[in-house]
Batch of 2 targets.
Target 1
Amino acid sequence: MTMFALVDCNNFYCSCERLFRPDLKRVPVVVLSNNDGCIVARSQEAKDLGIKMGTPLFKARNEIKRYGIRVFSSNYTLYGDISSRVMQTLEQFSPRMEIYSIDEAFLDLSGTGSWPDYGQQIRSTVKRHVGVPVSVGIAPTKTLAKLANYAAKKFRATRGVVDLSDPRRQQRLLALTPVSEIWGIGRNLTRTLERRGMRTALDLAQINPRQAKRLSSVVLERTVRELNGESCIELDEVAAPKQQIVCSRSFGEKLTDYSKVREAICEFTARAAEKLRREKLAARMVNVFIRTSPFDNAGPKYSNSATGTLPQSSSDTLEILALATRLFDMIWKEGCRYAKTGIMLGDFCSPDRIQLDLFDMGPGRKRSDNLMRVIDTINQGGQGKVWFGGQRPQKNWFMRQENLSPAYTTKWNCIPVVK
DNA sequence: TCTGGGGTCCTAGGACCC
DNA sequence: TCTGGGGTCCTAGGACCC
């Protein structure tokens, strides 16, 4: 019998921040999005205080002060490293595993017995080896495993593990769960379904799959089938090759200056090209966008983007930069207070299959590859020592990160010392 | 004053082909 | 004069996820 487990770290970013700060145990903690904009992770204590996911920091200032909530800027270097440790630990529990996001993974538990015990074993092992708490949901479809995990987190009596292999238990939980909590049902679908009188997951599970398709799309049809125990979404063991790479960011302050916004675009282009080379890909499509903030009433609203095609697929920062800056000039408008800019790369192929330009048969290409390799090696040292014309080394306006924790596990000088 | 970033998938509609 | 049907590819936009 096919059985999936969804293992999901509890309040992952907060748990990471606490790993090296035992003094923060039982203290409410929140972690902010890039640029210290919104609250994107909350410890249980912070949730209990009514802090909502996605709240802009400035709207929670009062509560933070009143309850002494500890605030952290996001530290993706730390979270990424802890994540890979969790995943390594999970690998030993199943021959087939899909890393679904930074803090969760599906395991194939078919053929294993006594699922609740096995779930508890997973929990205690991750806690012992890495130190972060996880919850485990077990069920015959991925959608039900997600639901089981939701219950494992929500109901304390489950001790962090819910086994939904029994259809009667599935029904009971479905009846208790609001339709909005189902994997794949977002804000819009919730509205559509509620308008038709479906409020619980059970209400949705009971409609005809074909009707679900008519109501929305095959995605909803699959969800209905999965809720009824029919597995439609397979385990993806190998990550699909990327189809696009995006680098974008809001600024720490509004920018009106052409040269500063252009610097930002150059910076993002260099980063995106690095990612591209790390994935061993080459891109042909480049898209650049700029926009003002929808919340900013102090100036005109403006949002625009431009797309261009490279003469041939490339992962060379200089070639991409040349196109990106040209696209940027096409959409630049004077007199706006810009809040955000970014670049998208797409239309990928692997570099060994690049269609060569008639006039670029080899040596030039090779030189560019070598140059990029050298630059990547130098920059991986950590501080970004080589940059291109247009990028700028010190950018104090760039991103707000006022409460950043140390890179405890990835930088020698940040490793905690036991006295 | 202060509102994230990086992705995927699906559908509809237009252009084009035979 | 009569003016089909099926297929592919591309793009934009919407919805969702973490």
Target 2
Amino acid sequence: MREPGRAGSNCILSHDPLDDVMELINNDPVSTRSESDMVNFPTLPDHVPCGSLLETVTINQFPGEPAVSSTWEPCHNSAQPTLIIKEQPKQRGMRFRYQCEGRSAGSILGESSNDQNKTLPTIVLLNCEGIREVHVSVCLVWKDHPYRVHPHALVGKDCHDGICEIILHPNEGETEHCFSNLGIQCVRKKEIESSVKARLKLGIDPFNAGMWRHHEEVDLNVVRLCFQAWYILPATQRMTIGPVLSEPVYDKKSTNTSELKICRMNKEYGRCEGGEEVYILCDKVQKEDIKVMFFDNSWEACANFSQADVHRQIAIVLKTPPYHDLHIRDPARVQVCLQRITDGIRSDGVTFTYLPREGDSYGLQRKRPRMSSPLEDLVGPDPHRIESRRRQARPSYIEYITPDYGSLPGMDYSVGNVMDPQLSPDYSAPLEDTTSNLEIFHTWITPELEEQAAASHFEGIPPYTDEDATASLVGHSLSLTGEQERMYSDCSYTDDMRMGGC
DNA sequence: TAAAGCGTCCC
DNA sequence: CGGGACGCTTT
């Protein structure tokens, strides 16, 4: 998954400051440098301090983006030997491994890798046709400027001392290289200093950034791959290429960078007015850095919950936000996802269906019976008030769409937990069986609704057009009563809150 | 002080 | 390679 707001390519269109940067770099008087300088692969012109040059790059199209563009080849038009990243490393999904976890630390995959087509991080040398040998090295650096060497180590094929080194022969057509079996071995906190010192001692410091006084402040959950290359010209001059930075690679195990995932939800249907309690089981999250979004093509809203509603990082109890149109007449399918606040990363969506209000739905004009009565609290001991809470809870989907129990032809009351808990003293079904509910739904709804629901069910995309969405938004703005507005004032209805907190 | 979170390691 | 135990650290 790419970061939000990032285009598919790092190439910047039309004229851009990167051209200027390229010019600076291409004019780098590298041949005037001594051999000892070359050990550290300096690339930046002496008269341009590293920081200021990098900032120049940063302030254009991608605010907040890494200061050094890693793949600027499409904008490159000189004949200088160049190294580009053809396939970025996959940013998420690989776990950094401790040394004690064994020799193999897994393998960094390519960004476009998937189950069917496995790819690997790949570099290409350009304008190197006549060169016999190009030495390429890869090391790990900090995610952010000034890209100090990272204590973690690259391990695997062609790796030693935490870096990976290979030799390419462009004059034999060998200009491209896939890095297979590259793993990231993480160090323990107490090993940060010794690891960095060892790296520096070997002359590994692509940006001449040295060691940070507060080296323990390094972010151990993210690295960038840093590619550098050198070759010898016939006149025995040593020439350098790079350094070129990859996109950041995040540790899968760390909760502040890992992929977000909704494992299960106890409810997939709910009232369009919102306010219903839903439990989400998820992979570890950080309670102060997580929100749950409900959204469709044209609308999104935050679910309502507090940090106390996040249970041990793996479950969230939330209240559904109201749908933007309280007067829907058909069930409205939306998506629910987790979103990390700090980086905006979202999980895959899970479908949630908003149901029309009573009376608004086609064919539903009769009143539902009351769901509880005072007598029912006397049914038996309920020390934890589980049953009584259950009765107070908003009706589940099937309760909601059923206008009058027992009156619908073709309804199978024996399936799942659609029986009213009050009617069955032994009732103790756990989470709702949504499959059953869905089946029942399809036995009840009109053919048109069924068709729509079925279609969108398989596409996984809400069956909306822009016109629908616009109409709904307008409808919504006209539909709120004063009381409803007060009731929902803490929830968002529109895109306005897209990047904001809740 | 207890609970939650994190880092590390084991299976 | 993923799940999770568990002890140490932080809140």
